[in-house]
Amino acid sequence: FFPTIKELPPDPLFGLKARYNADSRSDKVDLGIGAYRDNNGKPWILPAVKQAEIKLITSDDYNHEYLSISGFEPFLKEAAKIILGTESKAIKENRVVSQQSLSGTGALHVAGVFLKEFYYGGSKSIYLSSPTWANHQQIFRNLGLNVETYPYWNNDSKSLDLTGFLSSIKSAPEGSIFLLHACAHNPTGLDPSSEQWKQILYELEAKNHLIIFDSAYQGFASGDLEKDAFAIRYSIDQDIIKTPIIICQSFAKNCGMYGERVGAIHIINPINSTATLGAIKSQFNKIIRSEISNPPAYGSKIVSTILNDPNLKQQWEKDLITMSSRINKMRIELFNLLTHELKTPGNWEHIKSQTGMFSFTGLSSEMVARLESVHAIYLVSSGRASVAGLNDHNVKKVANAFDEVVRF
Ligand code: PMP
Fold first, then answer.
1. Whether 203 and 253 share a structural domain
2. Nearest residue by C-alpha to atom 8 in ligand 1
3. Taking CA atoms, which of 54, 107, 146, 388 is between 20 and 30 Å from 137?
4. Residue 253: active-site member
5. CA distance 242 to 247
6. What is the CA radius of gyration of the chain?
7. CB under 6 Å to ligand 1: residues?
8. Which atom of ligand 1 is nearest to the CA of 34?
């Protein structure tokens, strides 16, 4: 019945997880999937989330009814403020349409479906950073969109290839779609500085390109929600970008609610046009209705409980600092061990300077394979390590193993 069907290899990331789970070595280390772990290597339920769950399920109006097709309105309203800022011009001028999505992945998918049908700018090609989160490619390719890449990471200098990035913006057909990681770039952990962001945004505007901001790590890079939204807020508040802007927002990482699939897609329209905004909303609704009928309720209600309660919101901001500062501490420890204690050949400065969940270590795929087979340390073959998997108990082992594979 399915004459052309072929079995695919396991997803690289989830396949890695399966090998890790099957490994019986007691000192194994998981630096694969980007999920926060506490100092004992355990998943962490944020105190803000725990408190919000109790508040939610003990409230009188708690139930499991369907949400509307747009999602949970009190969540959407606050989610827009989190990413755009409470004083956002776009919110004040009623230029924002928000739709709840299946976390960040679902938001990217809805963006792709929407743009495929309604966007007529440029060549309709979507430009992704090289490298990027592996799923970006297939989310858009599955929809039949043409995917291109722009230079991002200079492997020799382990820094941003700004020249390559800007020249790719200039040479792309006018009105192309550019996907930008709002902060904590995955997989490199390397973000443009604010001056570099300005240059990038001005060039994008000069060519009328349409931006999709993928915001999967707000609060994770710096511990500060505002700082991590710099590029987004600057584009909008300074009126830099005159075309619509799409934001794909995930609460998976910054609320530690990976499995609950809490997210939103927002479109910021350059003008307040009731007709356009209403049309966008209705088309989002049609996409959601046909694909998932209506968004999941539980996670969005928890995040909404946090965002709508000043005390819980304050606790959440503390939790963000707990997570980001533990990760930064591990970056420094790994750097110090490699550089000062083991004198491992090479420059490891980038481990310290990169931000967010990941570090692009610069280890080759052969070294990564040896880390797994000899040392029971698991990371993806690109050499990306989830720094959240490091802790006081395993960082020495990891540094020694990095040293051994580099010298091998
Ligand atoms: N974008 C990027 C860059 C990511 O790294 C991730 C998660 N790994 C996502 C989007 C989507 O995550 P989720 O669907 O879990 O929100």
1. yes
2. 34
3. 388
4. yes
5. 15
6. 21
7. 34, 103-105, 133, 181, 186, 214, 216, 250, 252, 258, 263
8. 8
Name the one residue in this structure whose structure tokens are 């997570």. Answer: 323
What's the token pair of residue 45?
């339920």
Best substitution site from 135, 228, 251 to test ligand 1's pocket, by max atoms within 8 Å of Cβ? 135
Domain boundary (253, 285, 308) is at 308
CATH of the domain at 374: 3.90.1150.10
Within its chain, how far is the Cα of 74 from the centroid? 23
pLDDT tens-digit map of 47-72? 999 999 999 999 999 999 999 999 99
Q: What is the pLDDT of residues 271-284, one digit of tens each?
A: 999 999 999 999 99
Domain housing 222: 66-308
Residue 123 pLDDT level (bands cut at 50, 70, 90): confident
Q: Which token pair is 80?
A: 């827009």
Amino acid present at 159: S
Q: Given the residues 158, 253, 301, 313, select the one marked as catalytic.
A: 253
Q: Kindly give the number of the ligand 1 atom that is closest to the alpha carbon of 106.
A: 14
Which among 139, 183, 188, 214 is the best mutation to test ligand 1's pocket, defined by most ligand atoms within 8 Å of the CB? 214
Mean pLDDT of the chain: 95
The pLDDT value recorded for residue 122 is 67
pTM of the model: 0.96
Under DSSP, the state recorded for 253 is T
DSSP state of 217: -
> What is the CB neighbour count within 10 angstroms for residue 264?
31
Does the annotation count 23 as an active-site position?
A: no
Say which of 30, 161, 191, 214 is annotated catalytic. 214
Which among 265, 284, 308 is the end of a domain? Answer: 308
